[in-house]
Specification:
alpha/beta; 157 residues; 6 helices
């Protein structure tokens, strides 16, 4: 339904939001200790999405965009973390826009048509006013896919 509402191509993976490292580990193949120490612990919760090898059996093909990786982030938003805790599994976490439109960072900037199509909107503002930084840690060396809220300098061979 999310892909339909947002007009998102089914071949494009969508990030998932978790409320703990432990929850992330349930849906990813083993997370390297270097990833945990250098990226997850310093920047979670926050604006860093880490791409990791997915546990294929647990993560639907549509969420993975047909691939074998998954982008995982722990948001720095207490209400979202409580929702994740309440449902007990990661939730889908793309930006609140139609595919290809600018990302809104304030409630008032949401497309009214999109708001009408969804079941519920958690009102609030994005403190960072920037998309998350996305780093692919499923490859060595790691690859910064999108520079965003977190400025990283990586050096890992």
């Amino acid at each position: 339904r999310l892909f339909e509402i947002r007009k998102r191509p089914s071949t494009q993976a969508t990030p998932v939001l978790v409320n703990s490292i432990e929850m992330a580990q349930e849906y990813c193949e083993s997370i390297d200790s270097e990833v945990i120490e250098r990226l997850v612990k310093p920047y979670w919760p926050g604006g860093l999405t880490v791409v990791l090898q997915s546990t294929i059996e647990k993560v639907p093909r549509l969420v993975r965009g047909g691939g074998d990786t998954i982008g995982v982030r722990m948001p720095n938003h207490s209400t979202t973390l409580e929702i994740i805790k309440g449902v007990g599994v990661p939730i889908l976490g793309p930006s609140a826009n139609f595919h290809g439109e600018p990302t809104p960072y304030r409630f008032r900037d949401l497309n009214k048509e999109l708001v009408r199509l969804v079941d519920y909107v958690v009102k609030g503002e994005c403190n960072l006013k920037s998309a998350s930084t996305v780093i692919d840690c499923s490859v060595k060396p790691w690859n910064i896919i999108r520079e965003g809220a977190i400025k990283l300098t990586i050096n890992n061979e």
